[in-house]
Specification:
heterodimer, A: about 240 residues, mainly alpha, 10 helices, B: alpha/beta, Rossmann fold, six-stranded mixed sheet
Chain lengths: ~240, ~300
């Protein structure tokens, strides 16, 4: 029952974000592969697919995952339903668990589904893009980028108001992306490089080569667990 | 008689302001208990602490003998908030189906009866319901739980008189089935209409507590008319809650020693002595004034 409530409250946002990411993915693939001219070779789609997942999809998905993390009891307080929710025989921890798990799954789906459409788009236009590459890059994006999602989860438990938490969340995503790209000492923490390090992509085929380094992903994911635990602590302790 | 709600020295501080300042109350089982207080007196804060929506600063609070926040206890209670907000995206049918599985003692026959009595449109979204309809739906969701305790925060707020009366009668019927009703209000009349027991608070502290009958019997107003009134200090004694001098008349609110106070009249050359019973509204207003005079 709590799961159904959490799903119903978040599903339209999820579908909207998914649709937007599919549009972004499609447009990026078309732009990078020049598929509108239907003069393509498979390697065009290889490059287009890699550029899309590591570029446009990464950037848009980061913000989307942050938005999927918003919501919760502060949002319910704003619409006036938090008293009813908290009077039901469900602990705050369970509510938080259901919300965070469903949101995390939605974030994962929002990374994997658009990535997996790239082989479909490529096939429709006579090219190809390996499903394995799409899946692995999408998975790395979903798991490694969970930090964006947990940032949204945390800001929405600390800051009341849709606009405040969304605004702060956007600022956090910008800060994570730009500081690790610009500040020399933070460059090794760049999430984009951690999720899809350039050395794991063969520069001639634009496909994954060799063993994938998982340490960056694991570090980013562990950090997202810390932020989620922090959000849980705040949720359990604060007044609504 | 075991208490269903107990608080001891309960405090809640928001910044520098104390919403509750050592509140100690006891809600006896099986009664309708009116929780009376002005706006901002601490009623909603108390209820939110009992429901664990907000956390107390210090003190103790128990519901049905268990600490507040116990999930098991929440299976045995019902709650209807002041603005009766429910999930706007659900239909009436969906919110009933959503709530029902949380409560093992859910009474399906009560649900069927109330759906008919309240004429609730099953397929209408909660967002499309009027406040009156939302109140009916909120009542249905609580009355079907077969709960031991029903907590209501300003249940008649914003309702028209007919709907308010319907709601009060539903509470009386529920109490007859053994449910303890604990409802907050700043409407003295509705508390006087259905409550067995009163807890009145002001500035986060209990100002008046007891059964309605007992309070009615306990308090008396003694009006004394003089040609030349003596100083009010002449009446300051045990049992005197408030002394008001208005021209030649001295009006005394007393909870004890009423006969002794009335007997002072002839001794102090009063022209007339009149002892009257005191209504809850008058008592509440006097207590609030007294509280402000003291502070």
């Amino acid at each position: 029952m709590p799961i159904r409530k959490v799903w119903r409250e978040s599903r339209w946002r999820f579908f909207f974000i998914l649709a937007a990411l599919l549009v972004v993915t499609g447009a990026s693939v078309f732009y990078n592969a020049k598929a509108e001219n239907v003069v393509v070779e498979s390697k065009d789609f290889h490059e287009a697919g890699e550029r899309t997942i590591r570029g446009a999809l990464f950037r848009f998905w980061g913000f989307s995952a942050m938005f999927l993390g918003l919501g919760g009891f502060l949002r319910e307080r704003a619409v006036g339903t938090v008293d009813y929710t908290l009077s039901l025989p469900v602990s705050r921890t369970r509510w938080f668990l259901y919300r965070s798990l469903i949101g995390a799954l939605q974030s994962m789906a929002a990374a994997l589904i658009p990535a997996l459409t790239i082989p479909v788009i490529a096939a429709l236009f006579g090219g190809n893009y390996p499903v394995r590459d799409a899946f692995l890059l999408g998975l790395r994006l979903g798991v490694g980028g969970m930090l964006y999602y947990s940032s949204g989860l945390l800001v929405s438990t600390v800051f009341a108001g849709d606009y405040a938490s969304a605004g702060i969340g956007i600022a956090v995503v910008f800060a994570i992306n730009n500081s690790t790209r610009v500040i020399e000492s933070l460059k090794r923490l760049n999430l984009q490089d951690a999720i899809t390090p350039p050395q794991m992509i063969d520069q001639s085929t634009h496909l994954i080569r060799g063993q994938m380094p998982w340490s960056g992903i694991a570090f980013s994911f562990a950090l997202s667990l810390v932020l989620s635990a922090w959000a849980w602590k705040v949720t359990v302790a604060r007044d609504f | 008689m075991k208490a269903v709600v107990e608080t001891r020295e309960l405090t809640k501080r928001f910044g520098d302001t104390y919403a509750l300042a050592g509140l100690t109350i006891t809600v006896p089982r099986g009664q309708i208990v009116g929780f009376l207080g002005r706006n901002g007196s601490g009623k909603t804060t108390t209820i939110k602490i009992l429901l664990d929506v907000i956390r107390r600063t210090s003190g103790e609070a128990t519901l049905l003998g268990e600490p507040t926040g116990s999930v098991a206890v929440r299976r045995r209670i019902g709650f209807l908030g002041e603005d009766k907000r429910l999930y706007s995206y659900m239909t009436v049918r969906e919110i009933i189906a959503f709530t029902r599985p949380f409560f093992p003692s859910w009474r399906v026959e009560t649900e069927t009866r109330l759906l008919m009595d309240f004429e609730l449109p099953l397929n209408r979204k909660v967002s499309a319901l009027s406040k009156g309809m939302r109140t009916k739906l909120g009542l249905l969701l609580n009355l079907c739980r077969n709960s031991e305790l029903l907590i209501l925060d300003e249940p008649s707020e914003g309702l028209d008189p007919v709907m308010a009366e319907q709601m009060l009668q539903s509470l009386v019927r529920q109490a007859a089935d053994g449910t303890t009703i604990f409802f907050s209000s700043h409407q003295v009349a509705e508390i006087e209409q259905i409550a067995d027991h009163i807890i009145a608070i002001e500035k986060g502290r209990v100002m008046l507590e007891g059964s309605l009958d007992h309070l009615r019997q306990k308090f008396r107003r003694v009006n004394l008319v003089f040609d030349d009134p003596p100083p009010p200090e002449a009446f300051r004694r045990d049992g005197v809650d408030r002394v008001i001098v208005q021209g030649r008349t001295i009006s005394i609110l007393a909870s004890r020693n009423v006969d002794e106070i009335a007997a002072l009249g002839p001794l102090l050359a009063a022209k007339s002595v009149d002892v009257q019973s005191v209504g809850l509204k008058e008592l509440f207003l006097e207590k609030v004034k007294g509280d402000h005079a003291d502070s």
